[in-house]
Specification:
With 476 residues, the chain is an alpha/beta fold. It has two domains: 265 residues, Aldehyde Dehydrogenase, Chain A, domain 1 (3-Layer(aba) Sandwich); 187 residues, Aldehyde Dehydrogenase, Chain A, domain 2. It has 15 helices and 21 strands. Helix 12 links the parallel strand 14 and strand 15. Helix 2 runs antiparallel to helix 4, helix 3 packs antiparallel against helix 6 and helix 7 runs parallel beside helix 8. It is globular and about 75 Å long.
Length: 476
């Protein structure tokens, strides 16, 4: 069977790119090449930008109810094409199919419906006579064309997070999916045909050079990325050259702060779920467990036992709690970080590759680490967690906040006052109490510090894709 060559989606049609370089798309569960994707050139990006620019005014001038109707139809079409979306993504990620279906496709359809409703709920300052003889009011308008870059860890869902608020508010889009996971995004484009007007959603395939061409292009008024800190810095720097707005959802190093009054077995099971989900390839995943010294040894033992129960590496993906690491470069990076631990660190469980086919890695628990260790300070983005002990609440908060990332965190305790104080003091964009990682369309998601700025989801995320205009009229 020949390997298919993927195409860009521009102005409502799949088109051959002008760039001639091709990238292999590899199924990380098998190591097999399943497709080839083009590296779109600046000319390809320019073609997509022109299509998006031409489509902008007609789309922006639709009533919010008309855009809502289109998004509701798109959500229905996503559900009707769930099988195709699941298979397209599974080929590129190796994730368990049930996980893709439930946590990305079904959740994505639900979130599109939220954004559809949000299209009709934009708010601004009340009109009024703030200067005698005049009336002022505020218009909340779409920005125009927006450039977007999505990651490989949740390819379909992250595309939904990008396009949902942008389309609801009347923007048009040029989006580049990750170079290793483009197929579910292309399937989304196919589904959108006949629902979204031509040129409203455009997909260009490629690598970092294609993303840079989107950022450098003069047309977008905003560029948005979900990705690494390094990539986010490059986007912010590139956007600054032409004073584009930037929307950055970047890395994380989420702590779970566990006090001595918890049910250890129940807490360990929950932390294992939230740490090893999607092979830890989630910027909100628990990566650091900070536990009170009174239950440290008991929790480490329980966590290690729970880690061993989270299976991976089976050829039958229904048997896996999580799938493989996404690509050979990332797999090598995770292996190197674990193999390069300082001598004082102890691997309580895991630490090795699973099998010889694909990029599977064991759930791994590491103890006896220091706050200054690279494994504590730097994002691993794999099924790897560290455990540190603390003696006081102040020490716990200090250790939790002492990293450059500030996206997600959680506090585990049965004491309400402790939960309120610690959630106040944790310097992260999200704080969960006795749970972790759960997200809802109605609530914002985004971080501080090196985790970026701007919000996804919620009305805050919707407003990020708008601009504010003051209009004043004389009453005479």
């Amino acid at each position: 069977m020949s390997t298919p060559t993927l195409q860009n989606f521009i102005d409502g049609q799949f088109v051959h790119p002008r760039g001639t370089e091709l990238l292999d798309i590899v199924n990380p569960a098998t190591g097999e090449t399943v497709a080839q994707a083009p590296v779109s050139s600046p000319d390809d990006v320019d073609l997509a930008m022109k299509a998006a620019k031409a489509a902008f005014k007609p789309w922006a001038r639709l009533t919010p109810s008309a855009r809502q109707l289109a998004l509701l139809k798109l959500a229905d079409a996503i559900e009707a094409n769930a099988d195709a979306l699941v298979e397209a993504q599974h080929r590129n990620t190796g994730q368990p199919r049930d996980t893709i279906r439930t946590d990305e496709v079904e959740a994505g359809a639900d979130q599109i419906r939220f954004f559809a409703g949000a299209a009709r709920l934009l708010e601004g300052k009340s009109a009024g006579e703030y200067i005698e003889g005049t009336t002022s009011y505020v218009r909340r308008e779409p920005i125009g064309v927006v450039g977007q870059v999505t990651p490989w860890n949740f390819p379909f869902l992250m595309a939904i997070w990008k396009i949902g608020p942008a389309l609801a508010t009347g923007n048009t889009i040029v989006l580049k999916p990750s170079d290793t996971t483009p197929e579910s995004t292309l399937e989304l484009a196919r589904i959108s045909q006949g629902i979204l007007p031509d040129g409203v959603l455009n997909i260009v395939l490629g690598n970092g050079s294609t993303g840079a061409a989107i950022v450098d292009h003069p047309t977008p008024g905003l560029v948005s990325i979900t990705g690494s800190v390094r990539a986010g810095m490059a986007v912010a720097s590139g956007a600054a050259k032409t004073l584009k707005r930037a929307h950055l959802e970047l890395g994380g190093k989420a702590p779970a702060v566990v006090f001595g009054d918890v049910d250890v077995a129940k807490t360990a099971a929950a932390i294992a779920d939230f740490s090893f989900y999607n092979a830890g390839q989630d910027c909100t995943a628990i990566t650091r467990v900070l536990v009170h010294e009174s239950i440290h040894d008991e929790l480490v033992e329980a966590l290690s036992s729970e880690a061993k129960e989270r299976k991976t590496g089976s050829a039958d993906d229904s048997e896996n709690y999580f799938g493989p690491l996404n690509n050979i470069n990332h797999f090598t990076d995770v292996v190197t970080k674990v193999e390069s631990l300082p001598d004082h660190a102890v691997i309580a469980t895991g630490g090795h590759r699973v099998g010889t086919t694909g990029f599977f890695f064991e759930p791994t628990v590491i103890t006896n680490v220091l706050q200054s260790d690279d494994i504590v300070q730097d994002e691993t983005f794999g099924p790897v967690i560290t455990v540190q002990k603390f003696s006081t609440e102040d020490e716990a908060v200090e250790l939790a906040n002492d990293v450059r990332y500030a996206l997600a965190s959680s506090v585990w305790t049965t004491d309400h006052a402790t939960a309120m104080r610690v959630s106040r003091d944790l310097d992260f964009g999200a704080v969960w109490i006795n749970t972790h990682i759960l997200l809802t369309a109605e609530m914002p998601h985004g971080g501080f510090k090196y985790s970026g700025y701007g919000k996804d989801l919620s009305m805050y995320g919707v407003e990020d894709y708008t601009r504010i205009k003051h209009v004043m009229s004389s009453l005479e």
